[in-house]
């Protein structure tokens, strides 16, 4: 059994950030459970482009308001607490945060914890 709290992760190598977001990685590939789990903050007023061409991501909003735009179709969906979205087709997307968003994110294949977005907004597919 693995038990962790946010306080265990904050300020460690399992917390990573960029200008617009902070991601606290609870479960990584090293746990060998087939997925990874992050608690992610998207900063208020930011516009973020992501494309997980190597991963499937499910996201559940627990705080804040914003919207997600499917880049290829232009479809826009409102995000608020209780909203889930699944990027099951490796969707290129923009995430607009009207207020600070707090999201629970699940990735498959699991993240190693060292990934950073490249110029395309993509996480590379890494193995440990």
Give a verbal description of the structure.
- By secondary structure, this protein is mainly β.
- The chain contains one helix and ten strands; from the N terminus they run αββββββββββ.
- The chain has one helix at 6-9, and strands at 15-17, 21-27, 36-42, 47-51, 56-63, 66-70, 76-79, 84-87, 92-97, 101-108.
- The strands form two sheets. A six-stranded antiparallel beta sheet has the order 1-2-3-10-5-8, with no helix packed on it. A four-stranded antiparallel beta sheet has the order 4-9-6-7, with no helix packed on it.
- The two termini are 21 Å apart.
- The relative contact order is 0.27.
Set out the fold topology.
Layout: H1 6-9, E1 15-17, E2 21-27, E3 36-42, E4 47-51, E5 56-63, E6 66-70, E7 76-79, E8 84-87, E9 92-97, E10 101-108
Antiparallel strand pairs: 1-2, 2-3, 3-10, 4-9, 5-8, 5-10, 6-7, 6-9
Features:
10 strands; 6-stranded antiparallel beta sheet; about 130 residues; 4-stranded antiparallel beta sheet; mainly beta; about 5% helix
Provide a quick synopsis of the model.
This protein is mainly beta.
């Amino acid at each position: 059994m693995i038990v962790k709290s946010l306080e265990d992760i904050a300020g460690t190598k399992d917390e990573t950030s960029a200008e617009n977001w902070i991601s606290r990685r609870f479960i990584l590939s090293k746990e060998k459970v087939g997925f990874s789990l992050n608690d992610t903050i998207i900063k208020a007023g930011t516009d973020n482009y992501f494309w997980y061409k190597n991963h499937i991501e499910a996201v559940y909003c627990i705080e804040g308001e914003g919207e997600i735009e499917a880049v290829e179709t232009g479809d826009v969906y409102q995000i608020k607490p209780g909203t889930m979205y699944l990027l099951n087709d490796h969707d290129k997307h923009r995430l607009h945060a009207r207020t600070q968003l707090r999201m629970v994110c699940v990735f498959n294949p699991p993240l190693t914890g060292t990934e950073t977005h490249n110029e395309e907004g993509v996480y590379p597919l890494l193995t440990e």
